[in-house]
């Protein structure tokens, strides 16, 4: 650095960058956990769809409603499951985009910290 920053100002900048890095890392781990959860839900849903498709047309399908089960037409059940699968796929896609953004933000904060410390040691 050609111009020295006062130690207090430099400390405030470092604290702010560190906080950004920590927040990004926390949000990233939370987002990854959400992706894993949604992936599990989608796999269960896909298994359910494949099981329904493998059963005969004469088999009755029941949907859980609270503490009871209601007879549901096959077409309606398949349509509901397909829409849930699409919703989960969209959620996973959005969460993956969010994870990439948070990862980039974390890497930028770490890069800034490295630059500051590298320049600070060069100036000394």
Automatic annotation (TrEMBL):
Keyword Coiled coil in annotation: yes
Gene Ontology, cellular component aspect: cytoplasm; prefoldin complex
SUPFAM superfamilies (UniProt xref): Prefoldin
Gene Ontology molecular function, alphabetical: protein folding chaperone; unfolded protein binding
Gene3D superfamilies from the UniProt entry: 1.10.287.370
Record-linked InterPro entries: PFD_beta-like (IPR002777), Prefoldin (IPR009053)
Ranges in a coiled coil: 78-112
Keyword terms: Chaperone, Coiled coil
UniProt similarity note: Belongs to the prefoldin subunit beta family.
UniProt-recorded name of the protein: Prefoldin
């Amino acid at each position: 650095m050609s111009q020295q920053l006062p130690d207090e100002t430099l400390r405030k900048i470092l604290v702010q960058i560190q906080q950004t890095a920590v927040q990004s890392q926390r949000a990233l781990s939370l987002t990854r956990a959400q992706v894993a959860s949604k992936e599990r839900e989608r796999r269960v849903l896909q298994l359910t769809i494949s099981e329904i498709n493998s059963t005969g047309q004469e088999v009755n399908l029941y949907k859980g409603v609270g503490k009871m089960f209601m007879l549901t037409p096959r077409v309606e059940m398949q349509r509901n499951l397909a829409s849930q699968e699409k919703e989960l796929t969209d959620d996973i896609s959005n969460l993956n985009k969010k994870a990439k953004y948070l990862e980039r933000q974390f890497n930028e904060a770490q890069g800034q910290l490295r630059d500051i410390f590298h320049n600070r040691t060069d100036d000394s």
